[in-house]
Input
Amino acid sequence: MGKHWADFQLEIYLNGMTGTVPRLPTDLTRLEEVTEQRLGPGPVGYVAGSAGDGSTARANRDALARRRIVPRMLRDVHERDLSVEVLGRALPAPLALAPVGVLSIMHPDAERAAARAAAAQGVPFILSSASSTPMEEVAEAMGGSERWFQLYWPKDREVTRSFLARAKASGYTALVVTLDTPMLAWRPRDLDQAYLPFVHGVGTANYFSDPAFRAGLAKPVDEDPKAAVLHFFSLFSDPAKTWPDLAFLRENWDGPIVLKGVLHPDDARLAADAGMDGVVVSNHGGRQVAGSVGAADALPGVVEAVGDRLTVLFDSGVRTGDDIFKALALGARSVLVGRPYVYGLGLDGQAGVEHVIRCLLAELDLTLALSGHATPATVSAADLITGPA
Ligand code: FNR
Output
């Protein structure tokens, strides 16, 4: 028997006996509105904002909302186990914290607090290349807990090699290569405020601490920070890359490699052909291509194309436990959650991130049980119908 995440519900009610209520909403769809009220417009705009008019972020929510669960009864769900195996790792539940850059704009404890929260709850923390804390320091804050490294694939081969070597040496087990950001999309909320943390050298910690990056600078970072920022922009990403380039990553990383941002079944097939281990079906939370397909609408096609060859993960639009249930039913092995944990961090530091993880998994546990499932393994497309848009 696994941990009963649903016990969080009773814990909340029992705390109520002494007049205590949760510090943050338990309906996680409300976190954005609370964050908008309490945090500054620059950081909130950066996190909540999307590409273009926001149509892809809305499509992500619509694609999940259109699918409806058809619960089954009398199936003995009194003992449940949410644990899953993902990329050869045993995880307590089908959830990981998505890579999100520059967390220091939300809370001074930034990535350390989020990573500690993930560690405390046993879910993997995926550290962004664009973190505001160097990867070694985040690893140290997490002890031996599960962590993966997300790569924004630099133009410079030496920096790429150095990032991979550092990630390996500091205990990151899987490499998540984000393909959907060879350049930053048109993001009106940031543009209207002329707000981009990287310009100020925020979110560049892995680069500024990297020997290969520093070798490309005429002067040390603190003597000429502007030149360091410009060097960062010059090598941060590379729109010229193509599928054969993946061989370089395969040669330089001996653990699992997952490609994030795959939406087309043919791209999923190319990932499998290139010897990758998995894909994350994701549109970056609607932050890259406005007018893009909702991520959950793309998921079944990718699962059909490569479900027997690759581990298929999912993100973009997950806000509740029933969203996770739906993603599993559409064929995802596990989901990543982005903005909700970032809002939790901004509102209440490590405790806020733990609140988000516990709410999501308590709600997933209850949704599974109330729909007739004792484990994620039995959830399938037969549990869903698709309603009108
Ligand atoms: C992101 N995301 C992201 N992805 C990535 O691979 N590297 C990164 O550095 C970032 N940075 C980032 C910053 C912010 C503020 C957000 C909101 C998102 C995308 C992230 O990993 C994930 O794909 C989405 O957040 C998932 O969508 P939801 O859960 O936010 O709807």
Observations:
- The first strand starts at residue 67 and ends at 69.
- The radius of gyration is 20 Å.
- Residues 339-370 form the longest helix (32 residues).
- The chain has a mean pLDDT of 98.
